[in-house]
Amino acid sequence: MEVRINKEVRDYQESVFFGLSLRQLIFALLAVLVAVGVYFGLRNIVSSGEIGWICVLAAFPFALGGFFTYNGMTFEQFLLAFIRSELLYPKKLVFKSENLYAKALENSCAKEALRLD
């Protein structure tokens, strides 16, 4: 008998239903509910060809929320970090070099010999 253990213990996910974690299951059900709601809400307004695409586009963010991970962050955490770093607190990084050797020689007599000014 062989027991499989993940190389990284933190990557372990407990499967609840069909290999999905509880988070993935909840978001998948939420995506289905949104798609069904959009379908029944727009079936009299939009033709059947377009309604399929609208349902997919409406359900996509919810499905993405359950399965997306980036550097250990969930979709909500990643979205919040992206908004903070790019929109709320944008930084203009400027590189300014510094000559440490010239700074060290500012008060020495070797300054005249090297003519650093």
Can I get a quick summary?
The protein is 56% helix and 3% strand. It is mainly alpha-helical and 117 residues long. It has a domain of 59 residues.
Helix content: 55-70%
For the largest beta-sheet, the strand count, sense and barrel status come to: 2 strands, antiparallel
Runs in which pLDDT lies below 50 for 5 or more consecutive residues are none
The proportion of residues in beta strands is under 5%
Pattern of helices and strands: HHEEHHH
Number of separate helices: 5
Mean pLDDT across every amino acid position? 79
| Integer-rounded radius of gyration | 28 Å
Shape label: elongated
Structural class: mainly alpha
Please provide the count of β strands: 2
N- to C-terminal separation? Answer: 77 Å
Describe the structure.
This protein is mainly α and about 120 residues long. The chain has a domain of about 60 residues. Helix content is about 55%, strand content about 5%. It has a two-stranded antiparallel ribbon with strand order 1-2. A hairpin with a 2-residue loop joins strand 1 and strand 2. Helix 1 packs antiparallel against helix 2. The mean pLDDT is about 80.
